[in-house]
Amino acid sequence: MPATFDTTRGGTRLLFDSIAGITTTVESMHRKIARTAVPWPVAEDRAHGAIAAAVYRLILGVNDGLRQGVDWTFGQTPEALRSGRESAAEVRAIAALNGVCGDHLEATDNPLGTDMQLRTAQQRLVLEPPLLREAIPEASGHLVVLVHGLSMSELGWRRRGRPCIDEQLGNDLGYTPLFLRYNSGRHISTNGREFASMLQALCDNWPVPVESLSLIGHSMGGLVIRSTCRYAQLDGRDWLHLLRRVVCLGTPHHGSPLEQAGHAFEQAMRRVPYAEPMLFGKLRSAGIKDLRHGNLLDEDWQGHDPDAPRPDSRQAVPLLNGVDYYFAAASLGRNQFDPLGHLLGDLLVRADSAVGLHRDELRRLDIRPEHCRVFHGRNHFDLLDDPQVHQQVIDWFSR
């Protein structure tokens, strides 16, 4: 299926952005090599430096001119030719791209940047009573919203042809399941604030009185939910009185070792001659960097250099009183004593982080042990579609 108009336009913009970024990187590396090519001091060749700088400026100028011209051409396209529905492959590709550089896409107003939206399995919802009633004629007073993780979309809840947990929640327990789609490259706190506002609009405009609200988050989605609840609490959102339970699947409550390792590698490479200009890892999104420690609030990242090494200084965010929390973790180990599970966790998140454990008592999440479960012999993404995980979630919802 051919790409839609917005995907083509956004991809073209990103291509020109990439050319500009590569050119700037090459220029930076050129200067670095020119200054440190030999171990003894040399006189700076100003003529060579001026010529090189002029060449790079020319390349950037031509690239910018072409970008503006192509973008203007897209702007002249008739409205009738801009319609089209994204294919599943497009949705997945755009979601992956948003996880990697979604903050850049938003900052440059790129059409590939995903705007936050609530959806059914089939369509995007407009949060107005008549349109909600038309989209969901059998709306229940019990709502459950599923929140995906980094670089994913609502399609990620359906894998390998297996049924999604939303079907069981709807058919067996009478819930109306909805999905959140969002730009996972933005700061978690930015998404949390917006989601808190969106849930208020959802509850205010739902076609029948809302009796209960439940939230399920996978990976980063669990952090977005906890951030959302905190901002709803600070802003006095009414929907908090309707919140009954929160389920977190493989959520790095205290950070992801993969992002921590990536940051440590980047710091080591900064000491290698000529390597710093090519540290493309430092361009990873704000959302990814938030996963280093599990940042939930604006204060956790504002005023700090996200690429500088610093200890975990985030504010402690306790669980809400009166809400039932349930945490599920996966582990590659065959049992709790298997060293493979302690070493690698589920490949992305360690089990102790996923169930809220922490050496610092102030950061440890106060959740009942019987509300936590570790699924052995499974990886991070098995939590999305494993039948035993689904049954555990159904059991938690049935309590």
UniProtKB/TrEMBL annotation:
Q: Identify the SUPFAM superfamilies for this entry.
A: alpha/beta-Hydrolases (SSF53474)
Which InterPro entries does this chain map to? AB_hydrolase_fold (IPR029058), PGAP1-ab_dom-like (IPR012908)
Entry GO MF terms: hydrolase activity, acting on ester bonds
Q: Which UniProt keywords apply?
A: Hydrolase
Q: Which residues form the GPI inositol-deacylase PGAP1-like alpha/beta domain?
A: 139-271
- Family annotation (Pfam families): PGAP1
> Taxonomically, which superkingdom?
Bacteria
Q: What is this protein called?
A: Alpha/beta hydrolase
